[in-house]
Amino acid sequence: MTKFPYLRQDFTASLVVFLVALPLCVGVAVASGVPAELGLITGIVGGLVTGLLPGSSLQVSGPAAGLTVLVFEAVQEYGLPALGIIVLAAGLLQLVMGALKLGRWFRAISVSVVEGMLAGIGLVLIAGQLYATAGLKAPASGIDKILGLPGAAVDAAGSTAALTSLALGAATIAVMVLWKKLPKKAQAVPGALAAVILAIAATAVFDLPVATVEVKGLLGSIQPPGLDTFGGVGVGIIGTIIAFTLIASAESLFSAAAVDRLHDGPRTQYDKELMAQGAGNTICGVLGALPMTAVIVRSSANVSAGAKTKASRVMHGVWLLLFAALLPATLALIPLPALAGILVHAGWKLIPFAKIVPLWKEHRGEALILVVTAVSIVAVNMFEGVLIGLALSVVKTAWEASHIKLEIIDKGAGPIQAYLSGNATFLRLPKILDSLESLPQDRPVVLDLSGLHHLDHACRTALENWAARHSATGTEPVKVTEPEKAEAEKVTAA
User: Are 155 and 162 in contact (CB under 8 A)?
Assistant: First the structure.
């Protein structure tokens, strides 16, 4: 027992994580448009492979709601066999990035971009799963999903089957929300699992006409990508692979930072964690399963349940494997509206409602980046939406870094003194030139650049051109003091 001093705590925590992970693995798979068993396979790999590797000791990996929209779009566009190629390539990229020690750089990504990404995913996920709760087919694009909801509501209102399905989905969400208000002992059973069990019972007792999970069997669902699949994909798949890699990596490493704040154990080694995620995704790709990320819901449940070592997450993978091998027929009892309700609840939790207003009050630029990223994901697609958010973040940082002050001193006689201080970049060039060009041309001017910390090439060229053409005939040329040598003056010929 001394060899495994925390075996009891880890064993108990592993059971809790298994019960949390089971309905989510199945729900994410169904929402992604793939067989339910593929979600279980990813959860198993997340426990048995990624769980054994170094990186983060208490973080738990598996299929994530955050990748549901991206997986669904990829399967619709390239087909299910190509999913293995995408996940395999993403996993190999993660391994390379981890080996190059790029994991720590993901911490440099603006939190607003990541939260905007999750908010956009949450909005699309909620919209898509609302159709599923009513047993209706959702439109393909995110914006069409949202715009089509009023029409879907009208269609559902005229169908008894749709209303029954919708009621079951709504009841599932209600159970999950109210479950947290029950005594702590009752909450030992995770809310998502309790909701699924109650939905199964209600469907059986009242013989509800709702669709249930289609079961293919664990081995029957595994679809390793063949050579013909590699030959059939085009260059366009590269963008999807990059999107999978960046989003899965960012979500995992941001989750690691959050989990580290929940416990006092060893801190995450980001590069090793990225390689662990890469190893897991590589195997998932070979098996044709869903991509994995570290999942904050499972990870926080692991910490809260008292886990002390990585043994808890490995054992949760064992329990998933035993369930998939011994009780696969149980999946066929799960109503699809219940899984849709679980995903609606998960999507709602991805949207940072509580943070938006305070962020707007304190950092309006960051709040704008969050909202624009989310809207772009809904309006365009996942990859381009994230790129738009990253571009906005870079522009904002560059703009804030280019603070510059221009002070004009005119004593009425003698030369006009123009002092520039701060960082002179092309972003502030229009403002600088407007002020300088308003100076009278029949007076000598001294342009002092000694207070500049940075002067980029565009600004230097523009200032030299202004100095060369500013002075009127017969007036002394503009004198420019270089920032590198404050004591020396450089005279630019008129």
Answer: yes
Q: Distance (Å, rounded) from C-alpha 54 to C-alpha 6? A: 18
Q: What is the largest CA-CA distance in the chain?
A: 100
The rounded Cα 141 to chain-centroid distance in angstroms is: 19
| H or E element, residue 409 | strand 404-409
Q: Which residue pairs, CB below 8 angstroms and at least 24 apart, start in 193-198? A: 193/19, 193/20, 193/22, 193/23, 195/23, 195/338, 195/341, 195/342, 196/23, 196/172, 196/334, 196/338, 196/339, 196/342, 198/171, 198/172
Side chain identity at 424, as an amino acid letter? Answer: A
Domains located in the chain, CATH noted = 7-396 (no CATH), 404-491 (3.30.750.24)
Q: Strand pairing of 489-491 and 445-455?
A: unpaired
Buried b (16+ CB within 10 A) or exposed e, 218-230: beebbbebeeebe
Pairing of strands 404-409, 293-294: unpaired
Note the pTM of the prediction, 2 decimals.
0.77
Structural element, H or E, at residue 72: helix 68-78
Kindly state the tokens that stand for 254: 């941001």
Q: How many Å apart are CA 418 and CA 444, to the nearest integer?
A: 11
d(CA 365, CA 368): 5
Residues of the chain with pLDDT under 70: 1-4, 107, 231-233, 472-473, 483-494
What phi-psi label fits residue 299: left (phi over 0), alpha (psi between -120 and 50 degrees) or beta?
alpha
Taking alpha carbons only, the member of 322, 323, 325, 303 closest to residue 313 is 303
pLDDT value, residue 3: 66
What's the confidence (pLDDT) of residue 232?
62
Angle between helices 336-350 and 160-179 (to 10 degrees): 50
Q: How remote is the C-alpha of 242 from its chain's centroid?
A: 13
